[in-house]
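dude i think i finally got it to work??
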Amino acid sequence: MADDVFKALADPTRRTILDELTEKSGQTLFEICSRLSMKHQLGISRQGVSQHLAVLEAAGLVETRREGRYKFHDLNTAPLRRIAERWLVPHASGPQESTP
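look at this
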């Protein structure tokens, strides 16, 4: 699963989409496309954004919910926390230096 998260984060457009979902969660595809166009001057098609969202959803970084005919996209930070916790060492003395 970590491989999917790293793959999803490798693309700058997907990171921008996550930035937008951090700022305002629960956006529709139309809202995301509008924000990418207006704020970031990204000329990407709705289909392109939809494909990026599919990669983010497959990695678990985006969750979707349907309400009527609308599909809302929410940020899920749990996969990021699992990756960060993988390398965190619970030492109270601060950062450890490694010797070669």
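The chain has a mean pLDDT of 90.
im so relieved honestly
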